[in-house]
Structures are given as C-alpha cells and as structure tokens.
Amino acid sequence: MCDHPEKKKVLSINELEALFGQEGVRPTALRELIYTTLAQADEALSLGDIEVRLSTVDKSTISRTLHLLEGVGVIHRINDGTGAIKYAVSQIDAEEHNESPHAHFYCLRCGKTVCVEQTTLPSIELPEGFTPQVLDLIIQGVCPACNASKKK
C-alpha cells in the first residue's frame, strides 16, 4: 500500500470480485492474494519483493497477475528510477474506477517508494503535436522514518 497521511482506501475482497466481474475477469484466490499483499504493504513492492513474500508462487505467475491487476486498474506501476518496476494499490473511485494522478516519493536512505496522494502536480505544456500518455513524478529525499532515526 502506498503511504498516505489519511487512511488508504483499498477494495474489500467483495469489491474486488465485483470489479473483476464488471471487467470480465475471473476472480481467483491467487489474484486476491497478490492484491491483498500489495494492499497490506507499507511501500510499493517490486516483483522480487512480492516473490519473497509469496515464496510458494512462481515468478511468472506473479508477473502475469500483476499485469492483469494493472490492466483492471486496481494497481499501478511505479518507475522510481532504481531500475526495478514497483507496484502499489491504486486509489480508485469505486464508481468510476479511475485513479487520480499523484506523485511518488523515493527515500534515498531506506529505499522505500510510497505514493503521495495530496500533491499538486505541475501543469506541463507540451509543444504542438505532442500527446502525453503517462506522467511520472518521482520525488527523491528522506522519508519521515529515516529523518526520525537520524535525530536519535
């Protein structure tokens, strides 16, 4: 789960299954397990992180499931500049099934990547003919936990 000042809204299993039904995706225990693993994490997780947490599930199955969950819109990928794609649960509107754009924060000390929902994203005007597809805003710095441990 991405870190937020307020409590993160994650889908219940019933809501997840209902969304799967709307999208024509069969709910399975494994899909629910991977979603729940991301929802319970206090940071964005890479494929390797998930593989360690779910050691009985093979990497290719996790990868395919992440791709499916991303396609449904319940998780999103984060390229935080470390070279490893990370995944986090999307803050989606239960009615519209879309996520509001937001920034991500990468801690240079502990390596955690978290969502920063309450961020005003900059307005970027592109030259004529350019059509934006994705906007990734990664803020690098030191997280509150690392700042607190430094002061002790």
Automatic annotation (TrEMBL):
Cofactor annotation: Zn(2+)
Keyword Ion transport set for record: no
Keyword Ribonucleoprotein on entry: no
Biological process annotations from GO: negative regulation of DNA-templated transcription; regulation of secondary metabolite biosynthetic process
InterPro entries: FUR, Fur_C, WH-like_DNA-bd_sf, WH_DNA-bd_sf
A molecular function (GO) term: transcription cis-regulatory region binding
A family per Pfam: FUR
Cofactor-binding details, from the entry: Binds 1 zinc ion per subunit.
Gene3D superfamilies in alphabetical order: 3.30.1490.190, Winged helix-like DNA-binding domain superfamily/Winged helix DNA-binding domain
Keywords: DNA-binding, Metal-binding, Repressor, Transcription, Transcription regulation, Zinc
Record-listed Zn(2+) binding positions: C107, C110, C143, C146
Family according to the record: Belongs to the Fur family.
Protein name: Fur family transcriptional regulator, ferric uptake regulator
